[in-house]
Each structure stands twice: as C-alpha cells, then as structure tokens.
Amino acid sequence: MAQPLATAIKLRRQIARFGDSLAVAVLLSLALHAGVVALFFIHSQRPPERTVVTPPSIRASLVELSPKAAPAAPEVKTQRRTPPPAVRPAVSAQVVPATVKAAPQRDDDRSAERRQLLAAAAANGAATPLQAVEGGDEQAASYIAAIAALLAEQWSRPPSARLGMSAKVRIITVPTGRVVGISVIDSSGSEPFDRSVQLAIERVGQFDIIAELYRRDPALYERQFRQLEILFTPEDLRL
Amino acid sequence: MDIMLFMARLSRQLLVAAALLSALPSHAELTIKVTRGSDQPTVIAVVPFVGRGVQVDTDVAAIVQADLQRSGLFNPIERAQMLSMPAAKADVYYRDWRLLGADYLVIGEFNETASGKLQLTFSLFSVLGQREMWSHQVTGSRTQLRDMAHLASDKIYQQITGLRGIFSTRVAYVNAYMEGGQMLYRLLVADVDGARERLLLESRQPIMSPAWSSDGKEIAYVSFETGRPAIFRQNLATAARQQLTDFAGLNSAPAWSPDGTKMALALSKDGNPELYLLDLDSGQLDRLTRHFAIDTEPTWTPDGRQLLFTSDRGGTPQIYRLELASKKVQRITWQGTYNARPSLAPDGRTLALIHRRDSHYRIAALDLVTERIIELTDTALDESPTVAPNGAMLMYATKQDDSGVLAAVSLDAGVKYLLPAQRGDVREPAWSPFPR
C-alpha cells in the first residue's frame, strides 16, 4: 500500500514540476487546432457571400462585360444569367462527380445550392479555352496573364497619365471571382490615375478566370489568388 | 504567484502562435503587373439640371454633355436611354446607371442667390464605387449661363482626367469670303465649340497670323490694311489697337513671349526673312538669326528661353531650336522631307507641326524627347495646327466641300470634331491661353 502511494506522490510531484510547460504545450496545441478549425470556419462562412450575389448587379456587370473577348466569359455569363432551377437538374446529373474531385474538402457545405453552383461552374470550366499547365507556378502564371489582360482591357488611363507612373493596389476576391475589396497600397501621387486603376478593377468586378482557378485548384487560390497585389504602370503611352 | 507567472508565459506563447498563424496566408501574395490600357472613353451620364424655384431656359446640362463629348475622353449617355433623372443625391439609384454601363454620373440644380444671380450646384458620382465623389458650385447672371456650363465642364473634366479643362477657352481665326466682287477679311474670336463668335476686325485687305498674348487679353496679327503687311496688337475688351511694325518687306508670324514683354517676329527688312525679337515696352528690335535661308514661324518654349522656328537652311523646311541667350541654332526634326509650322504644347515636349511623308502632308505630334512622330490627321488640306493650353487637343484648318473650316483633334484620344461651318473660308486658328 505504501508502494502505490509513494508512486502517486512522486507522480503528483512530477506533474507539479512539469505542470506549466505541459499545460503550455497542451494549450498551444489547442490553440493551433482552434486556429485550423477557425480557418475552416472562416472559409465556410464565404459561400453565402458567393450565393448572395443579387441578380441586378450580376446583370450590370454583364452589360459591361459584353464587348469583351475574355476567355471563359461567354459561357459563364449565360449560366449566371440562367435562373438556378433551370440549370440544376441537368448539370448536377452530369458534373457532380467532377466537382467532388476538384474540391472534396471544401464541399462540406450542406447547401445544395452551392453544390449546384459549383457543378454548373465546373461544367463551364471544362469548356474554357484556357489551357492551364500542370504544376503550380506555370499554372499560376497563365492565370496571372489572363487577369492582367482583363484589367488592361478595362483600364482607361487619364490624359494626365505618364510613362513611369505606377499605382499598386491590393484586391480581395472570393471563390466566385468577385472582387470584395480594393485598396490602394502604393499611390501614384495622382488622384485621377489612382481612380482610373480602381475603376478598371470595378469595371471587371468579377474575374470568372479566378472562379475557374478556384474550381481547379482551391489550394492555389487560397495561397495566391484570394489576395492579389496589382501594379498598374503604363508602358505604352505617348509621353 | 506561480499561477501569475504561468499565465504570463502562456499568453506570450499564445501570442507567438497567433502571430505564426496569421503570417501563414500572406507569404504567397503575388503581384500582377498591368502595363497596357484600352483607353476607352469614360462613360458619363449628365442628367438635365433642374431649377429649384427658378426658371432656366438654357439647357446647361446639354452644353456640359457636348463639351465632355468633344474632348474625346467621354462617351455621354443619351438622355433617351436614361432610366431615371435624379435631381438630388437621395434620388440616385446606382443600379440604373450600372445597367447603362455608366462610370460617372453628374446631377445638378439651379438656385437663385440673394443678389438675384443663378447658382448651379453640381455633383459627380462614381457609379461603380456607389458614392458621391465631389460637388461644386458656379454662380453667374442669366446672361452667363453658357459660361457657367463651360466652367462646370472644366471642373468635371479636371476631376476625372487630372488636366485642366479647356471648355472656357477661346479660339481666334480669320474668316474670308467674297462680297460685292471683293474679298472681305474678318478676324474673329469664339468659344472653342464655335459658339458666341465675336468680330475683332474687318478689312478688304488680308488679315493673317492671329496670336494670343499670354494673359489672353490681347491678340497680335498681321494686317495688310496699310497697303503692305504690318503687325498690330489689339485689346479684346477695349478694342484699342496699336501698330507694332511697319518695315519694308515681310512683317509676319508674331509670337508673344510667355511673360508678355516681348514678341518674336519674322521680318525681311534686311534682305530675306529672319527672326527678330521686339521688346514691347521699349520698341527695341533685336535680330536673332542671320542666314541666307528663310527663317520664320517662331514659337516660344514655356520657359521663354528658346524659340522653335521653321527654316529651310538645310535644303528642306525643318524645325530648329534657337537658344535666346547664345543665339545658338540646332536642328530638331530629322524625319520626313518637310516639317513646318511648329506649335508647342504647354508641357514643352509635344510639338505639333505639319509633316510630310511619302508626299503627303499631315498634322503630326512630335515628342521632343523620344523623337517619335504621331500623325494625327490624314488629309493634305490640313494646316495651321494650334495646341490647346492643356495640351490634350489641337485645332487646325482643313477643307470641307471646298471651303475652309476649323477642326479639332485630341492628341491621345483619337477624336475629331469640326467647328460650325461659316460663309467662305475659315483659316489660321489660334487657341487662347487659359482665362485668368
């Protein structure tokens, strides 16, 4: 009886001695887990934003987008224009497996509507001319070029713009490709120039190419495309 | 106390962990570079202005809309397409304007001030940004509605483009036609849209080369009324005029210095056309060039230290630079077999000129730094380019149905417009400086 008691006392003493560092380790691990869970939580909070996109504003961006020759734009446009009920049966029947393959973890959402959206989008994605190269960097590079081209198409420089001027902005996107935040992080020093940059992004409003990227490689999206820094610096001006 | 220590250590550890976590997503942010643009005209909607308790007969918003459209940088939305015509901020539904593809929206209203003047309050909205960006007021009498409209256009243009608007500036030109079997020459000044033409001088003898003083209050010109060419200056407000030169031979191409104290001219009193500098206070004349070739058409650099002029000393007409302090001359145009009639933009860098390539004469803009030439017009009938004081447009004389008319072209936006045609020929436009 003395033996177990002695062991218990020793154990308690050991626990007391290492108590705080153990607690630290436990708490740290708890914090990390909480952090990871929070990330998931934060992420799963995004989909509502995605689906909340109201019909009027979608239609408005379509008016602006119509003269573009952007890759992937036409198909996605018609899809977005189509009311969800019409799309749902046909597309989900065909493409749901592809969606699950593309984003198995993110699709934990119980929202059937979101699944439909993804499915519909994946169906369109398959038809886009953009040939993304396998392998992260090259793939990212092709998306970057496409994004830059879309912005160049919408960028009207003020006549006061000059070679050598530059403005850097940070944009925040959601997986639908919609821009939800624009901030100038490095001003050109000219208000009209900065405004022209902001207007170019607002005119694009929705990067279908980013939505496509998200469907193909959500990890790449999270890593590099949720937040983007864009440097606008004209190189083709007269002066 | 042990517990306190423990808590302190714990919170420190947690902070480190939190910092690590928050640092995770930012490491991979990448930068996209956009180096080109499409420079499409900005789509703007100018809603008809309303009168609050006042009746305003002139359609001021229509004048603003036309001004902006003529600049080439704006593509206004037609009134018939407007889904609503808000008069106040509370009535603005951005969705209506998004649907039309508008980038900007202008609304405005007139009020009467205590002194009986009209006050126009107008606001600029960013449609995509869904916010009122800026608001401004201009005041004037009922006879100044057109001035108020141009002033509003100037302000809106400046807000969006960063350049001062030129809608309140004017243009001087010469109109000539047959009357009673004889030519009649008239020197006129009008708004840049051609409206409100005003007669300065009428003569049976030729009038040529109008040139603005830098304060915009006087015009110098060549008149043959004395039987041979002489240079005059005339005050616009008082119509007072003074003859500046009466030399034998050619008296031509007056160009006012930026500080207004001197005038560069081309005189042939010493044999062939040479450049001279006339001090307007003392009347002292200083010869600048000495060459057997023709030197003419001087134009000042904005700093007033140099003149650019046309000379055929190299065999063909080309543009040369003359440094006034040293009188050193240097050729600056090397492309094409003919470059003449220089008109320098206020940036001192863009030079408008008549340029010949492949036996075609065109109005072109030469970048004095890169030496790149951009051809702006493509008919052989274009002459006398004059650059707007904001450097964004130039005006020139051209032919339409065999009679001379004035046209304006933007230096960057690729837009042209013709000023209203007149009886007979219109030639030699001179764009005024900004009003002071």
Automatic annotation (TrEMBL), chain A:
It is a single-pass membrane protein. The chain crosses the membrane at residues 21-42. InterPro entries: TonB/TolA_C (IPR006260). It holds the Pfam family TonB_2. SUPFAM superfamilies: TolA/TonB C-terminal domain. Gene3D superfamilies: 3.30.1150.10. The keyword Oxidoreductase does not apply. GO terms for cellular component: membrane. Residues 71-93 are annotated as: Disordered. It comes from the Bacteria. Keywords: Membrane, Transmembrane, Transmembrane helix. It is found in: Membrane. Its main location: membrane. This is TonB family protein. It comes from Gammaproteobacteria bacterium LSUCC0057.
